[in-house]
């Protein structure tokens, strides 16, 4: 865990997120909390991570998501050297990706 982000305010935000019970509630909350571009950037990185786990090429990912190769590379670095957050969620959602 990155100690730079571990603050009381971030704890409060995560506690709020954990109360959300449906996609509709998520839309309402995240549209209030994030700008449209922030939300689209988060969703793009998530899609990039899924496609990387599906063994798609950078070119295919860039074409399908509009992500830059720099963004794809950053997401790939998170998948390989991060805190395993993406893989935890993928596993919980039942995605059949290989273990890293």
Task: Explain this structure.
The chain is mostly helical and 100 residues long. The chain contains six helices and no strands. Helix 3 runs antiparallel to helix 4 and helix 3 (36-53) packs across helix 5 (69-81). The mean pLDDT is 95.
Annotate the secondary structure layout.
Blueprint: H1 8-17, H2 23-33, H3 36-53, H4 58-65, H5 69-81, H6 85-92
Helix pairs in contact: 3-4, 3-5
InterPro entries: Trp_repress, Trp_repressor/repl_initiator, TrpR-like_sf, YecD_YerC
Pfam families: Trp_repressor
Protein name: Helix-turn-helix domain-containing protein
Work out the radius of gyration: 15 Å
What's the total count of β strands? Answer: 0
**How many alpha or pi helices?**
6
**Distance, first to last CA:** 19 Å
Shape: globular
Largest beta-sheet characterization: none
The residue fraction in helices comes out at 55-70%
Q: Helices and strands, in N-to-C order?
A: HHHHHH
Strand coverage percent: under 5%
Which descriptors would you attach to this protein?
single chain; 100 residues; mainly alpha; 6 helices; 68% helix; 0% strand
Short characterization:
The protein has about 100 residues and is mainly alpha-helical. It contains six helices and no strands.
